[in-house]
Design brief:
The chain is an alpha+beta fold. The protein contains 1 helix and 6 strands, in the order E-E-E-E-E-H-E.
Length: 97
């Protein structure tokens, strides 16, 4: 990057402003862990919230939309607790009864 003071820029696809952060305007879609507007070869540590607006894939799976779980839970308290926890994480929509 180059620049001085509180504003730096390296290309038309991203900018960094001290106090505001890094903005990547490249719209390259991610198809796997090695393609997309931002690719991190090593690990990524995130100390705050992470908000994802699109579909998510974990452990090498293809990214999918958040599933909706339907059907009857009956009197299974453990299943109820599990579905509630996963819904609270935003991983699924619990439409069971």
């Amino acid at each position: 990057m180059y620049g001085s003071g509180s504003s730096y820029s390296s290309s038309a696809n991203f900018s960094y402003v001290v106090g505001t952060g890094l903005v990547i305007s490249d719209a390259t879609a991610s198809t796997d862990s090695t393609h997309g507007a931002l690719v991190v070869t090593g690990g990524a540590g995130i100390g705050g919230k992470l908000n994802v607006g699109g579909n998510v894939g974990f452990n090498g799976t293809t990214a999918i939309a958040k599933p909706t779980i339907t059907g009857s839970k009956g009197a299974n308290a453990a299943l109820t607790a599990l579905l509630t926890a996963l819904a609270n994480y935003g991983l699924l929509t619990d439409s069971t009864t």
